[in-house]
Structures are given as C-alpha cells and as structure tokens.
Amino acid sequence: MKAQIRKNLCLVVLVLSSLLLHAQDNLMSLLEESEEPDTEYTIATFKSTRLMSGQSVEIPAAGVLQYVINHRFARITGGFYNIFGLDNATMRMGFDYGISKRLAVGVGRSSFEKTYDGYLKYKLLRQSKGAGNMPITVTGFAGMAIKTIAWPEPDRPNYFSSRLYYTFQLLIARKFNSDLSLQLMPTLVHRNLVATRADANDVFALGMGGRYKLTGSLSVNVEYYYLIPGQIVSPVYGEKVRNSLTLGVDIETGGHVFQLMLSNSRGMSEKVFITETTGSWLSTNIHFGFNINRVFTIIDKHNKK
Amino acid sequence: MMKKVFFCTAVMLLLLNHVVAQKYIARNGYIGFFSATPMENIEAHNYQASSVLDVESGEMVYSVLIKGFEFEKALMQEHFNEKYLESDKYPKSTFKGKILNIDELDLSKDGIYDVEVEGDLTIKDVTKHIKVMGTLQRKGDRIIAKTKFPVRVADYNIHIPAMVKDNIAEVVDVEVKVEYKPYKK
Questions:
Q1: Strand pairing partners for B30?
Q2: Which residues of chain B have a CB within 8 Å of the CB of A19?
Q3: Of A91, A95, A152, A272, whose Cβ has the fewest other Cβ atoms within 10 Å?
Q4: Which is the CATH superfamily of the domain at B2-182?
C-alpha cells in the first residue's frame, strides 16, 4: 500500500514538474493556437521589373518612380577593334511608376530605330499562402511602340499607323523558394506593317525564364522567347529571325539593381527582341548589355498609427 | 486505488484551470525598431505582434511575423525581408521569458509597475539570452506592457553589406507596447 502511494506521488510530481518546465512552451502553443491565419503575400519574386530583355511580374511599389537605363552593345564578334561591341551602343531611357499596389505605367525612348514605347502593367493575381492560397503571380502587360526613324523610301505613301506595334503578355510566375523563381510569358506582338504577305501581323511567342539567387544581392537569370514557327519568313536586315535567348546576372545594391547580360537580341522593346532577333548564340553573334534601375520614393507610406 | 487516481486527476484539473485563469493575451501589439546613423534614420513598425502573459508565474511569450514590419520605403522593406532577415526561411521572431520580480507586484491594483524580464530572444536562427527593463500597467481588466531595449544586429546572424554599412546602425533600438486582455478559452 505504501509503495503504491509513493508510486502515485512520484507520478504526480513528474507530471507537475513537466507542466512547470514547459510552461513557456505551453504559453507559446497557446499563442499559436489562438492566432488567426493571415494571408501572406509573396514578395520579390524577381529583383527587377525586367527579367532581362523583357518584363517580369514585378512592378514598382505604389508611389515609387523607377528610372531605367538600358544599354545593348554591338555584337561581341566585332573583336577588340570594336572592343567587343562596346564602341557601338543603343540605349533606352525610361520611367516606370507604381500607381497602386497592382497597377504601373511605363514610358521610354530607345535609340534603336528612334522608338518610343509606353505600357501598362497590372497585377491580376498575387502569389500568397495562409488564409488565401494562390500558387502564382500573374501580371498583364499591354504595351505600344512607335518607330519614328525616317522612312527608308519617303517617296512612296507611308502611313503613321505603319509605325505602330502592340504587345500583349501574360506574365505568370511562381517563387518556389527564396532562391528560385520561374516565369512563363505567353505573348502576342501585333505589327501593323510587315515585309511581305507571308509574314504574320500577329506573332505569337511563348517566353520562359527564371532566376536563381546565389547570394542575397546576386542572382543568375535566363530568359528565352520561343516563336511559334512559320510566322516570320522575311529576313530582318538581311538575316534570319531567331528565338531570343538572354543570360545574365542581377546585382543589387542599396537603391539600384544592375542587370548585366549576354543576348542574341539587340532590342529593348518587345517587338524588337521577340520578332527581330537575328543573332546566333552558336556563332557567338551575341551582344553584351545592361539595365540599371534606380528607384525614387515619391509618395512615402505613412503607416504610423 | 481508484480514489487516489480520481483525487490526482481532480487536483491536476484544478491546477490547469487555475493556470488558464491567470493568463492574459494580447494581439495587434506594437513592435518597432529604429536605426539611427548620420546618413539616415530608418524605422519600421509592426502592429501584428501577439503575446501571452501569465500573471501568476510571470512567464511571458511573444511572437511577431517578420513580414509584418512596415517601412517608409518599399524597397527597404523588400531588402529587410529578402536579404537581412530572410523571412521566407525564418518567418517569425519570438521571445520566451519571465518577469523576475513578479512576486513583488500587486497587479490587482491599477498602477504602473517596473519589471525586470529575462528570457530568450530568437531572431532568424539565433537565440540569445537577454535581460530588459520595462513596465506593466494595470488599467481596469487590461494590462499594458512596455519596454525599449537595444539589439546588436550582428548578434543575430544579420549581415549588412559594406555598401550600406553607413546607412544601417550596428545597434538598433527595439520598442514594444502591447495591451493584454484576460484570456478566455
């Protein structure tokens, strides 16, 4: 009987002591139990609003102005005489502005064929987990480019509408983890004027790409646009049109993102790099290029309560 | 024998009940931090901290979502989450501690009481034992806890790149203000 009591007492002491020992852990689990699940939105699927040549799902934050400078140099096959293309640059200067959490507008001007461009980007879906679960981010892109370079044959009738190009894209991305993000870009480029009847005015392409973060401030990026075959038959500047492939790195500092890349495309607007890429990676007819983004916070978020 | 088991169970149930009755819970608590350098001042505010306080034992726990910190500049917020705190990998910061002088306090009376709290602060994958001074204020059925303490950024495996070293303080001041209500199941 005595042994039985001692046994029971031991049990009680054991249970009590374990209760006391884990008091803080119990409080913690109590806290976790009573927490209501929140919708947690994924941030920074990509560092930049551009994957490399083309757009990413990202837009500048609301109230943030982004100044963008893009450069694409001539082909590296020019050798040392042309310092691997650096002698001959085309550049684009542009501004992007975040109107709201979901909507952004951009304008730019490229020295390549004296092209002006403007676009709207709208975040249709945002990747999230928790209370609201959404596996992907989807951004719609609608852009327009105006080629203003003088007509090669000014004597024949030339129409302003022939200078216009339109691009529509769905940018679909998923950030798989903090390092890996992948993106798909079904794209339609509409060209008002094409070289021959056999060339399509509406060109369909499927873009794919992604980034892998090596460190917090450095990532490697890939971007490829696959043209559905048979749409573009005429050569561009005497060369066959190819699919665009861009490889590069993102380097992030405090307020800048530098994107350095090699690409067989020379253009910085969709109609150029999707429908007029002629360089060949196999014959190293590729270009060095970079994008620099600098952000300016125009409207501060004042969340102080 | 059966009696004893019954007795033990009853005691334990009573005890558990007693423990629950002494608990206070806070949601939408405030945690902020301030970094001051000659280059710039940076501050971030989080209104989603939650905490449980056991006024009997003095035990207290805090939990806060890193993504809930709001900065003035969106890019700072992104870098804070992506590069410095790695909030995808370490979504929460927690504190588990104890009010050392809980026995000297009479929290049944309205008033402000100085407290000394000791416990483990976890940020990212690093847990450090810290001791901070603060106050508890009894106001009707509420209890308001306040404290300010310094945190050395490098202690918690947070690496600030050389390029922005001048803009981010080595030691940031953390401010906490939470309001507890009695916990009901």
A1: B177
A2: 15
A3: A152
A4: Lipid/polyisoprenoid-binding, YceI-like (2.40.128.110)
